[in-house]
UniProtKB/TrEMBL annotation:
Homodimer. Residues 1-199 form the Flavodoxin-like fold domain. Coiled coil: none annotated. FMN binds at S9, M95, Y96, N97, F98. Keywords: Flavoprotein, FMN, NAD, Oxidoreductase. InterPro entries: Flavodoxin_fold, Flavoprotein-like_sf, FMN-dep_NADH:Q_OxRdtase_AzoR1, NADH:quinone_OxRdtase_FMN_depd. Its cofactor is FMN. It is an enzyme of class 1 (oxidoreductase). It comes from Vogesella alkaliphila. This is FMN dependent NADH:quinone oxidoreductase. Belongs to the azoreductase type 1 family. Binds 1 FMN per subunit.
Length: 202
């Protein structure tokens, strides 16, 4: 069993999602026994966003690649290999301005690759990365799970959509909401999320 653990919060020790993803990975390891974990701190070690030069490697003979193209192609291959080789993904995804951190989007852009993790067919796109379980640990300062808030949620819906596009249907959300709405609300949100982790890993 291999776990790919991604954190994307820029808040370091003050991060709700970092606290909860650690607890979740610990619980998964206790449940599954011998489990290998690959960890990426996407905030501290940012993956460069795609550029014209990086993408240009796909249309340039390898012998003519720049040093940047060579190094970034190697990085992308590593990230794709880790993604495809994992059975479980644990993704820490705080809500930033109604969506996800750009650091997490940079990772997604590296692993969502035609011919590797999805393909186009005569009947539409087909995901090639199925058979995984993804736990998304989501944190929000306010409440976005109600009818009014859902209209502004481009975080969880986006992740569910893009992972589904890659063939992953088993996407489970562990949510801490209202963490910026006072000490009591934050405490209640953390307790509820920890209980959800306990339920999910029994």
């Amino acid at each position: 069993m291999k776990i790919l653990h991604l954190d994307s919060s820029v808040l370091n020790d003050n991060s709700v999602t970092r606290q909860l993803t650690r607890a979740l990975v610990d619980s998964l390891q206790a449940q599954h026994g011998s489990t290998g974990v690959i960890y990426h701190d996407l905030a501290s070690n940012e993956i460069p966003h795609l550029s014209g030069e990086i993408l240009g490697a796909a249309f340039t003979p390898e012998s003519d690649w720049s040093e940047l193209q060579r190094s970034e192609r190697a990085r992308s291959e590593q990230l794709i290999g880790e993604f495809l080789g994992s059975e479980i993904l644990v993704i820490g995804a705080p809500m930033y301005n109604f969506s996800i951190p750009s650091q997490l989007k940079a990772w997604i852009d590296r692993v969502a690759v035609a011919g590797r993790t999805f393909k186009y067919t005569d009947t539409g796109p087909v995901g090639l990365a199925g058979g995984k379980t993804v736990y998304v640990v989501s944190a929000r300062g306010g409440v976005y799970s109600n009818e009014q808030g859902q209209a502004m949620d481009f975080q969880e819906d986006y992740l569910k959509t893009v992972l589904g596009f890659l063939g992953i249907s088993d996407v489970r959300f562990i949510r801490a909401e209202a963490v910026a709405m006072g000490d009591d609300a934050r405490s209640n949100a953390l307790n509820a999320a920890k209980e959800a982790i306990a339920q999910a890993t029994r």
